[in-house]
Amino acid sequence: MRPTEKTEGHASNAAERLFEHGLFASRWVLAPIYAGLALGMVMLLVKFC
Length: 49
Description:
mainly alpha, 92% helix
């Protein structure tokens, strides 16, 4: 294997790890939104059923 191939693979792995970490961390941003939507659905169920 040539050094350039090894470097390209390393850069790809670093970018992939960064993307995966960002995606995994973003769930904490979305969790309150989903909790609010679920609470709103429960409130609608209580009001209209």
